[in-house]
Amino acid sequence: MKKRIVIVGSSFAGYSVALTLSRLLKNEHDITVIDQSPNFMFLPSLVWHPFGYRNSEDISFDIRPIYDDLGIHFIETTVYGFDVNEQIIYTPKKDIPYDYLVIATGTRANYSSVKGFIPGETAFSICSMYEAEKTRHAWKNFLEKPGTLVIGAAQWAGYFFTAYEFLLNALYQLKTHKLLDAVSIHFVTSEPYLTHFGIGGIHGDVKASEDLFRKYGVEWHTNAEIHELKEHKVILEGGTEILSDFTMIVPQFIGVDAVRTTRKFANPFGLINVNDQFQHVNYPNIYAAGGAISIPQNEDTFVPCGVPRTSHSTEVMAKAVAYNIASEINGGTHVTVSTERIYEYCREDMEHLGIILFGKDRTGDHDLDFIAKGSQEKWANISIEQYIESSFDPDFMRI
Question: What domains are there in the chain, each with its CATH number?
């Protein structure tokens, strides 16, 4: 009898689960993907949009033709809840039953975790194309009327590397416009030290990052908790106040509302607790991958830090989910990936980024000219076309 596999979310995790399952199950079972938009957004490239290196058409594509070719059903709608006992997904259009459910919803920005955080007003953000567009406009105005710049990552943030990439892009543009001497620059982070990245640090990058910051006059504030954001002011716990003419903060991310509001489904942050096969700890026919799952910190920090989800680690989780569902249906051995291994995948990505930003993988003495080409060309943001093409390579299925 055909099984009904429903994947909620169609970003890195959902896309990878869907394509891998399609190959493993050979159209013998029903695969459905639900997302409120048919456009796959290449999220790592949002950091480049405010600086004009990427436009919306460069980092998104319509996912439906690919799904159609593979016999995957796509439903464009919003999910507003789940009945995990009756195995039903609630949407405005209809209730959708499932035999296997995959939560690949990612997360949403929790601006309310910082008092006064109003994106586009008290601080700017790049958590969506809409917000990145606002940030792009504000950055253009800042270059015309420079002042004090504050870039950082709030308490419980996990995507620290986004703040570093944004800072490096900002420094490059300030250098290009000969404005470095006209700007006071602050970097605020909940990390215990620079390049901790929420995963315990990258060997050798601390001194390199500090040297880079000193060279370009960046004052850094580690172990920093943001008490409140006001228009033109960042207030830290302890009373430190930083006047700011342009503020960009990476916030905490939590589970989406549909997951958070389903009773006894997620942890207090709206994230799914899973075992090392990415099954929900209480519902073995429900799987989760990517930003939607809870990954515990492996060390205590003075100010809480989140754990990043890199594209590589997310794809590994997603493929494991696909293999395990296929094994449930067809018989076979389950794939396990430990929390320690997820940390290793994240650390590998962060080490690569660290080499790009602070290491020897470019000419010059901590020169910023590599930004002109885009460090994304050397890191995971090469192009949306290459990501799509890699999905159809047999190696895409390998963990």
Answer: 4-109+253-349+382-397 (3.50.50.100), 111-251+355-361+366-373 (3.50.50.100)
